[in-house]
Structure formats: C-alpha cells, structure tokens
Amino acid sequence: MNLTWKQFWRYYYIAALCIIIASLPFSKFGQSLGQFLIAGGWIVGRFDTRKFKLCLQRHSKGGKIYTFLPYSVWILLEGIGKGFVQFYRNKPALIFSSILLFHVLGLFYTTDFDYAFKDLRTKLPLFLLPLFISTSEAFDKKGFYRLMFLFILAVLVRSVYNTWVIQSNQYIDIRDVSRNISHIILGLLITTGIYSLLYFSLIQRGFSLWARIICILLVLWFLSYLILSQSFTGVAISLLTLMALLPILIVKTRKGWIKVCLLVLIVSVSTVIFLYFRALVNDYYAINPVNINMLEKYTSRGNKYDHDLYASLTENGNQVWLYVQRDELRASWNKRSKIPFDSLDKKKQPIAFTAIRFLTSKGWRKDADAVGKLTPSEIDAIEKGVANVVFLKKFSIRGRVYEFLHGYDTYLETGNPTGSTLMQRLEFWKASLGLIRDNWLMGVGTGDMNMAFQKQYEKMHSKLAPDQRWRSHNQFFSITIGFGIFGLFWFLFAILYPPFLKRWQGDYFVIILLIISLLSMITEDTIESQTGVVFFAFFYSFFLFGRKERAFL
Questions:
Q1: Does the residue 386 lie in any domain?
Q2: Last-in-domain residue among 375, 393, 411
Q3: Residue 80: phi, psi to the nearest 5?
C-alpha cells in the first residue's frame, strides 16, 4: 500500500482509539497503552514533512549539519504548537479540559503532594483525551458507528465471560467478578451500550430489519446480565436514564397522542415502582406472631433454648433471637464446615451471626437439627456471608431492599454502619457534609482529601471500621471538599456548558452520556478512579468532539 504520511497517522490514530475502546471493559493497562499511543502519534503526526523535505534539499546542497537537527526539532515543535493553538480555539473542548485546571490550582494549598500528584496522573485523561480527539479529524457517521459497535462487542465479550464465571461459582463476592474493572464502571459501560443499541434499533433508519433485531436481542442480553450479576446500580441507572429520557421525548415530539402516552407511561411506571417498594418495606417489618407462653424450652436433644424476648431483629418476619442453642449450633456447624463457628465468614463477619440469621430467614430454629437440614450449597452460601435465604436468588430486588433495611435498623440500634453498603454511604456523606461545612470556600486542596476524611471520622467518633473509612462516594461532594463551592460550580459548568456552546445539546449520545454519568456521580466518585475517568473523559470527548454529525432524538 502506498500511504501518505497523513493517511498513515490517521490509521494509527484509529488503531489507538480501538485499543482504548476494546480495553474499557477489560484492562487498565490497555486504556493507558491506547492513550500513550495516541499521544505519541499526535506528536509525531504533526511533523510537517513538506518543510522537512525542503530542509533535506538544502542540506544536500551544502547546508550545515549543525543547522539540520535544530531545524528538524523546530518543525516538530511548530507542529505541536499549532495543535495546541487549534485546541485553544475549540472552546467547548478547552472548557471541558479545564476540570484538570482546578486540580492543578489545588496544589497551591495542599500538604500531601504525593497523593496530589497521584490524583493528577489519574485525572490526566480529562485533559489529554479532549486535546487529542478535538484536534484530530472527526469521524463521519459510518466511522462512528463502526467504533461504537466495536465498543458493544467488547462489552458483550466481557459480559459473556463474566456470566461463565458466575455460573461456575468462581467468586466470593459477586462484585469481584469483573476483577480489575470496577463492577460499577462495567454497569455504566453496559448501560451506555444498551442505549446506543436502542438508538440503532429504534431511531436510526439506516439499518436493516435483521440488524435491528440483533440490536434488540443484545439489549435483552445486557439487561439479563445486569440482573444475573446483581448489578443493582446498573439496573437502577438504566431505569432512571429511561425515566429521564421520556420527558425529553415529550418535549421533542409534536404529536399530541404520543405526549399523552408518554405521560401515562411515566405516571404508571412511577406508581408501580412506589407501590412495589412500599409493599416490600411493609413485608420486611411484618412480624410473624409468637405466643411467648407457648415457647418450647428444650431442643430435641434435651438442651435448653435461649429466648431473647426483647430483641427486635427479624429475618423474613421471624425473630432472630428466639430458639437459639449455641452449643448445638457450634458442634453441628463444625462438623459440616471447614470454617469454625467462632471465626469469620469470607466477608469478615462473625459466621455464628450469619448462620443464625440465615436459619431464621428460613423459619427454622437455631439448633443442631436445623444445621443438619442445610444443603451443601446453603452451607457454602453462609460461608460466603449470605445471611438470608432471599439473597440466594441470582437477582433479588427484595433481597437488596431487605439488606438495606437490615443495615438501617442495625445502624439505628448500634450506630455502626459497617457491613451495610448503603449505611456506609450515609456515613461517608455525613463526613462529607462536615468537611464541606468547615471548608466550603476553598476546599482542602488536591492532595489532602484522604487526610481530611480520616480526621473527620475521628471528630465524629464514627463507629465505622477503620478499613472502611473511605471518601465520599459522591463526585459532587468530592469536588466541593477538594475545591470549595466555586470548584463545584465550575465542575458543573465545564460538563454542561460545552454541548450548548457547540449547539449539540440535543444530540442523543451526548444526552445519554450526561444522564448516565451524572446519575452515577450521585453514589460514586466516578472520576476518582482510572477506569471511571477514562470512561467519562473518552466518551465525552468522542461523542462531542469526535463526530461530524449530530444524532437527534
């Protein structure tokens, strides 16, 4: 093939993009490699070969060697400078990349520079990806679709592999199935894939019937995977994204009957969801009646039961601290499990408590006879920290609601949120609000956030376990803590204003990315991890600066 210099670097750029896209659901190393390759290609590709040839001709006619090399370097630097000028003139890209700027400004009043520079390295894609993508030739519709289908293929392969891991039971906590990629970020990737496929199958008219059918089947597969993998975040964000899109469709459509149908759909879905969750809450707090005068005192083996009549803890309506015989439990459990009864389960919880809760959830007494009736799979589940038979289902909304309510009741009773994901988040947010109250103007700086959180937990006398005292798990809180209220305003401005400045605020892909990302930032520090920041920075740059044509709803 006889490629020109420009064509070669164009293919090189596409190949590097493909590496990033294919690595999103698989590998942090692949994401870094792709960015490194794009950076190298962007620099070398801006070398002006025409000027270089003229330089060679002058050198061959008697030019000085000591002027040849400096002039070559000058040509390269001039090309790079032109690239930065082009980037500077692209105001939407410049504004978005300025998110990194206040992280740099935060260095002026930080004390932990080791963490500060680590944080800057993590956030570097917020500057580099807009720079490289906005100053490279944008893709036409066909090129964009091809890259999006590569992304969908990568997510599909990852979901199939994870399904095999789940079915073969090769995990302790199902959140670890994704290994080196956060299960939260994988859920965001799958949700992005779902709504991309919905566009290709329902909105874009250039696809054949068979292509549309395949897209719908892939949507169904991804939804099934989110359920199978118990990705509550993925399911919730997928549903909330739909609920956010419906009002936009109501405003966009000109047909009255469609507006009415969409409004009815929103009201109906919201009502059904509310009634369903209310029923689950009522069911959780319902207590099966017990006649305390009829409680049996002895087990079938003649040992005396312990009955705590004042404890309120229940599992599936059954009182946990009735009919407990610990000696029998210990002896029978130790015969059936390699994990001793008085040690911890694989989630680092007291296995005695996990077993008692699990037996209670089945409506059984807590004695040797009950342990003898447990199946091998139930023994394995208890060893993994499963405390309720409801949690054995592959995906159980009831189980997640029960888990939340149990954590909430335990938190109210003991003040200790450890062990409950949602209660821990409330403790993170409580600490975050305390830090914001004390540092609302300037924040604590780029590197001092971890240190500030640890001091805040001590100040609160938090009962949260030391190894669980994490940061806010809310991106908006994190930005405010780091850079104050003005940092939060600029963060939101840098994300929301560029689409309006470019007049792409009605673009379908930009809309779904903003909805998915902003929703995730409510419960996660989305751009505080490498996979999260690459996901956000890449798709924001690719959707807004990497295409020539908008995709309207």
A1: yes
A2: 393
A3: -65, -40
- Give dist(CA 160, CA 228) in Å, integer: 11
Q: Which structure tokens are listed for 98?
A: 């300025």
508-523 helix and 530-545 helix, angle to the nearest 10 degrees: 160
| Alpha-carbon gap, residue 380 to 343, rounded angstroms | 15
Among 3, 31, 4, 28, CA closest to 17:
31
Any bridge partners for residue 246, and if so which?
Answer: none
H helical segments located in 439-474: 449-460
pLDDT at 254 over 90: no
The answer to whether residue 17 sits within a structural domain is: yes
Structural domain including 378 reads 292-393
Q: How far is CA 222 from CA 150, 159, 186, 207, 524, in A?
A: 15, 8, 11, 20, 22
Name which of 112-121, 166-175, 482-491 the model is least confident about: 166-175
Cβ atoms within 10 A of the Cβ of 287, count? 11
Residue 551, in any domain of the structure: no
Confidence of residue 44 (pLDDT cuts 50, 70, 90): confident
Tell me how far apart the alpha carbons of residues 4 and 141 are, in angstroms, rounded to a whole number. 24
Closest CA to 388 of 367, 353, 418, 362: 362
Instruction: Answer with the one of 334, 359, 393 that is the final residue of a domain.
Output: 393
* Other CB atoms within 10 Å distance of the CB of residue 57: 10
Number of domains in the chain: 2
H/E run at residue 314:
strand 314-315
The answer on pLDDT for 57 being more than 70 is no
C-alpha 7/C-alpha 82 separation (Å) is 19
Decide: 243 and 266 in contact? Cβ < 8 Å: yes
CA dist., res. 239 & res. 398, Å (int): 17
Residues 78 and 55: their CA atoms lie apart, in Å, by 15
Does the pLDDT value for residue 368 go beyond 90?
Answer: yes
pLDDT of residue 189: 96
CB-count burial class (<10 Å; 0-12, 13-18, 19+) for 315: buried
Tokens 């401005």 map to which residue?
493
DSSP 208-241: -HHHHHHHHHHHHHHHHHHHHTT-HHHHHHHHHH
In a domain, 59, yes or no: yes
Instruction: Report the alpha-carbon distance of residue 124 to residue 536 in Å, rounded.
Output: 12
At residue 1, the pLDDT reads 43
Whether residue 170 has pLDDT greater than 50: yes
Q: How confident is the model at residue 62 (pLDDT cuts 50, 70, 90)?
A: low
Give the tens place of pLDDT for each residue, 425-464. Answer: 889 999 999 999 999 999 998 989 989 999 999 999 888 8
User: What's the N-to-C CA distance of the chain in angstroms?
Assistant: 41
pLDDT tens digits for range 219-241: 999 999 998 888 888 888 999 99
